[in-house]
Amino acid sequence: MEKLVIFGGNTLKGCVDISGAKNAAVAILPAAIMASEGICNIDNIPDIEDVHCLERIIESLGCKISREKNSARIDSTNMNSVCACTEDVRNMRGSYYLIGALLGRFKEARVELPGGCNIGARPVDQHIKGFEALGAKVVIEHGVVKAEAEKLIGANIFFDIVSVGATINVMMAATLAEGTTILENVAREPHVVDVANFLNSMGANIKGAGTDVIRITGVDKLVGCNYSVIPDQIEAGTYMIAAAACGGEVAIKNVIPKHLESISAKLIEMGADIIEGEDSVVVKSSGRLKAANIKTLPYPGFPTDVQQPMSTLLSVSEGRSVINESIFENRYKHLDELKKMGAEFKVEGRIAIIDGVNKLTGAIVKATDLRAGAAMIIAGLIAEGVTEVHNVESIDRGYPKIEDKFRGLGADIKRITE
Ligand code: EPZ
């Protein structure tokens, strides 16, 4: 068991390098198994547990993977299984992308239902609706999604809700369908665009990713390619908020500032200074920020994944803030932990009302999920005294070397193995 021990109160100064995007990488790795010829060389892969988990799953399907620093070489030419049913599959969310990848390449997939952060019901009905529209027969039996088709045929699919996972999963299967598929009401997140770019580098014909209509003309096969994963918008947002909360001046490097606009705009509204460079943003904050209202929305709106770190900052900002979590119905568990540190709030359904306090005080808390963990670390960094954050495994699923990166900015944080 590991925990993070934080002595709060230091301002943050210096530079932090942002890693490759988790939510792109966890889709690109499964997409790589669609190459029936050639090797995929993928760079800028984040060193996180969700990626390690996927690598083990992909190897169990008969692919060869070699890793060097942040790069992976994936040879899926001799894959020999369409069945992904292991503990790793059950433990993470991104494993569901194997359904689209296997169905596209082999017209058959057996994949256990995914796990991941417990932040709401997280159904997969829209994924299944898409696969069925392409001609697959899909059943869920004993916790396993079984999908098969004699052949996949392009279709017009209008998603009932905007879903990152369903958009990517159905897009993957449709790349190897016969004819044209049009996906409407799709997610526009940067990682959706990144996966489409990766598939196009493999020989797919996908147009429109980044808008709300994606048009896919099916091709016969996908082949290996060289690719580099985009920077992680959510990791960058987390360090931006930490810098704003702790005060000081932090340069967040290797980012695409455009992807961060909703976060930058909110921090500016609250009183922080943001200077955008070509591939960096500098966050400066010298005192207590003002309260703000936030509604989480699909991209380009304010990301739900940044809501939890942001609520820590709001808990010490001056005045009353209202958060409307419109994406996931159960993404406020971290507030109960924050309460142990002195935060004042009220939750009514999807609305959280936060009354900013003058200070938080160190306490023993846990990371109830991945981004909740980041929220608790930021709370520890600003709190008076010592904070222990337990359940660090949740944080390691999605933040590479988080304590090293914060220490590099002047934070007093260490990992202790008990
Ligand atoms: C992805 O989850 C991310 N996970 C999440 O990252 C992120 O919070 C979320 O997108 C929203 O941006 C991965 O990429 C692995 P959705 P996903 O499908 O795809 C409902 C993080 O912290 N829905 O866009 O599962 C769903 O319940 C995390 O990195 C259906 O009703 O999210 C939710 O209310 C956690 N039916 C909404 O849509 C479906 O078939 C959006 O979910 C699919 C989704």
Automatic annotation (TrEMBL):
Pathway(s) per entry: Cell wall biogenesis; peptidoglycan biosynthesis
Binding site residues for UDP-N-acetyl-alpha-D-glucosamine: R93, R122, P123, V124, D125, Q126, D305, I327
GO function terms (MF aspect): UDP-N-acetylglucosamine 1-carboxyvinyltransferase activity
Top-level taxon in the UniProt lineage: Bacteria
Positions of the catalytic residues: C117
InterPro entries in UniProt: Enolpyruvate_Tfrase_dom (IPR001986), Enolpyruvate_Tfrase_sf (IPR036968), MurA_subfamily (IPR050068), RNA3'P_cycl/enolpyr_Trfase_a/b (IPR013792), UDP_GlcNAc_COvinyl_MurA (IPR005750)
Gene3D superfamilies: Enolpyruvate transferase domain
Signal peptide: none
Presence of the UniProt keyword Plastid in the record: no
Limits of the Enolpyruvate transferase domain: 8-405
UniProt modified residues of type 2-(S-cysteinyl)pyruvic acid O-phosphothioketal: C117
Enzyme class, UniProt record, top EC level: transferase
EC number assigned by the record: 2.5.1.7
CDD domains assigned to the protein according to its UniProt record, in alphabetical order: UdpNAET
GO cellular component: cytoplasm
Keyword annotations of the record: Cell cycle, Cell division, Cell shape, Cell wall biogenesis/degradation, Cytoplasm, Peptidoglycan synthesis, Pyruvate, Transferase
Entry's family note: Belongs to the EPSP synthase family. MurA subfamily.
Name the UniProt record assigns to this protein: UDP-N-acetylglucosamine 1-carboxyvinyltransferase
Organism: Clostridium oryzae
